Amino acid sequence: MVTIVVGGHFGDEGKGKIISYLAVKDKPDIVARAGVGPNAGHTVFKEGREYGLRMIPCGFINEDSRLLVGAGVLVDPERFLNEVEVTGTEDRIAMDGRCAVIEKRHKKEDSADEFLKKKVGTTGSGCGPANAERAHRTIRLAREIPRLRGYLTDVPLEVNSAIDQGKEILIEASQGFWLSLFYGTYPYVTSKDTSAGMAAVDIGIGPTRVDDVMVIYKSYTTRVGEGPLNTLITEKNIEKYPFWQDILSEAKKKGFTGKVNDILAHYLGEKGTVTQRQRRIGSFDFELARYSAMVNGATQMGITCLDKIFPECYQVRDYDDLSKRAKEYIREIEKEIGVNATLLSTGPEPEDVVDLR
Ligand code: GTP
Ligand code: IMP
Ligand code: MG
Questions:
Q1: Which tens digits make up the pLDDT trace of 120-143?
Q2: CA angle 222, 238, 240 (to 5 degrees)
Q3: Which of 53, 273, 316, 351 to mutate to test the pocket of ligand 1 (most atoms within 8 A of CB)?
């Protein structure tokens, strides 16, 4: 079985959290990282410790999983080696020798370039300039870097032969559909497509080999960096959203002050994993969710951070224990998108999930 986990809005939907659950629960033989590169920050907890992983698959928390980084992913050698050390995964991780390598100059350009830094609001991780150079065909590949020599493999060969043997493969994509270079809110996008099809390409498997595409949405929509967020909640429109008025007054009761969107971001704890920038908060964008489910070919849907807007659902693991209002909220999302919500996340720890698969 091959499952791809992909983001349905603007990234940071909680893919890391869902993957950590699947890694523990389904014990995949292989967890492979797809996506752009170290611009992504996946948050995952293992035994109470928090990891913000930018290179290593979050599935590392299952100690029996083989960990792979696909050829489509940009590798920052220093960061990769550091995360290997922190996670203690040296003996079971490898990347494709054809991964392109981010160098210092790519990071420098990403942070210094007025258009990239100011207008697009990139993460400064060097991904855009590195992908541009990759297209120019002058970039270095992982196989040319001596420090990475011990970590190289042919990822498509490993993954396709594992599929032939009936093994379980979990592919973790990064970013979100609306940051796609092809389909997103151009020019406020990342430097590559971010849909499930691209994740398969990143790893080197054909579309016929994918069994499930699980699209992840947060219970509300967030965006970090520049670009439109149509459902942004502000002092001007919060009257339209009785649901969000209640959350706002809850936040104020807890002592949060300032502009409406800042209060909500602080209350919900929405700060970027990579850049520590505050994420903007919007109500759930159904229109964008429906479209991304379509292009991704979603077979299932995961919804995260339910406990943040329904605190009574914190750490609930049984559907019957969810509150009535939370169940109604999920039903509405399912109805609007036309895909079954099979994993409902109720807290940051891997086990905080209602599994309806
Ligand atoms: P990108 O690849 O950067 O798009 O990351 P991501 O989709 O893995 O999400 P990221 O980890 O950046 O952000 C999600 C945040 O929500 C993290 O801080 C998670 O710990 C947290 N989180 C995820 N699911 C839940 C949940 O159900 N409840 C709570 N309270 N927090 C959650
Ligand atoms: P870049 O990918 O660093 O070039 O950034 C381009 C845009 O995508 C910026 O708006 C970033 O904030 C956004 N972005 C890139 N990666 C992520 C991610 O993993 N989560 C959320 N936003 C991201
Ligand atoms: Mg993130």
A1: 999 999 999 999 999 999 999 999
A2: 110
A3: 273
